[in-house]
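Materials and Methods. Structural model of Cystathionine gamma-synthase. The 382-residue sequence of Cystathionine gamma-synthase from Maricaulis maris was retrieved and submitted for structure prediction as follows.
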Amino acid sequence: MSSDQRTKAIRAGLNTDRSWNAVIPPLSLSTAYRREDPAIQPAFDYARTGNPGRSLLADAIAELENAAGAIVTGSGMSAIDLLLHDIPHGARVICSHDAYGGTRRLLDARGRGGRLIPVYVDTTDLEKVADALNEDAALIIAETPSNPRLRISDIKGLARLARNAGTELAVDNTVMSPVLQRPLDWGADYSVQSVTKLLNGHSDMVGGVVCCADPERVAELGWWANCVGVGAAAFDSYLALRGLRTLPLRARAQCESAQEVARWLDADPRVARVDYPGLTSHPGHALAARQQDGFGQLISLELAKDAPDPRAVVSALEIFTLAQSLGGVESLCCIPALMTHASMSPEARAEAGVADSLIRLSIGLESAADQIADLDRALSVA
Ligand SMILES: *Cc1c(COP(=O)(O)O)cnc(C)c1O
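The predicted structure was written out as tokens:
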């Protein structure tokens, strides 16, 4: 098979149907699979353990990530949680201080029960991570680019620190997808992501995936996924495989529009600051250019002091729907402090640089000219 991401994504799972020679793999909703012999384990047995469509999706994502294998789960959160099942009780888990609000909520909740000790560190600063590793840690979870401030952490540098400290590195690759960044190529042990976002891209299912560098970990985490029952549903897997076929084209077009929108915002006096790794003024620009294959489709911004109230601006936008998700073909906007990151304490948000007035844009596939015109109008009428 070709090493080209476009070819891999389009050809994934085609012509695998042995019942009717369907070109597109069929949707198999059956819970149970008939055995020829009670003593012989069939390829598929029971749907919690395995489903043909889910398995094709896992193979497709693993191929795009250059992974040994992948486990597809029912959400991005259950994918992150899957990594926590077999760490020692009470172990320290180091996590990017500005990670997705749900990731912090999960680690904090597990921390309150004594299952683990969350340690939040600015993972863009390798010295701070090295300091945190002076004490044993079971896992590092780095989100890069981080959501919503789009800070860039050095995956290769983090992987080296993890290896030297005898720990493992997981990268939350949700904002990029395997088309724009392949963390395992830089030495990470796991690439986790929310399939709900850019990977599926059509905002009509919820799913997650853990891609592993080590085939043994694929088997171990697959065992846990079956044990606790977090494998993705058949229909959601079907939709995600369908969405994934156009991922390389969508991601490319969304990056191009985001670059145009970010440049326009950056030049507008009503905007005080734009966070977009594609701008040369972004502190992570050079690193992003090195470890990513594109700058992504997320943009965050702060309005100038005398500009309208950000709540009025997001409410006045029409091409950007006010809704909390990202990565879809449709443009969305949100105020993270009130929406995606509302579960974080105000102190944690302040530490992560998520101001109450921060606006996040997810750039979809409408024309960039229309996206810019919408922003221009909303900034004037609000
Ligand atoms: C959305 C998101 C998640 C959680 O994924 P779900 O599919 O909503 O469970 C995790 N990490 C990041 C960076 C996200 O944006």
